[in-house]
Amino acid sequence: xxxxxxxxxxxxxxxxxxxxxxxxxxxxxxxxxxxxxxxxxxxxxxxxxxxxxxxxxxxxxxxxxxxxxxxxxxxxxxxxxxxxxxxxxxxxxxxxxxxxxxxxx
Length: 105
Hints:
Blueprint: H1 9-20, H2 27-40, H3 46-66, H4 71-81, H5 88-96
Helix pairs in contact: 1-2, 2-4, 3-4
């Protein structure tokens, strides 16, 4: 996000780099701030961000069904990007994995 002070287009490079990484590599922790900065600087419109959010939510749902690694990474991206209500499948994941969200778990 500080890259916007230098050149907005550098954010696009960071976004492309993050998209090339696999889920579980930590990209989900960086995507929300990069996407927010891209939106704030006018590089992406809200509709584009919403499409990305929907794509990430689908990946999360498919990952839950298939039992893939990196769900925490995707979970963070999906819940941090949007202020909308969390999709049912993600709420179901949270309820079924309460120990992931408490201090002792």
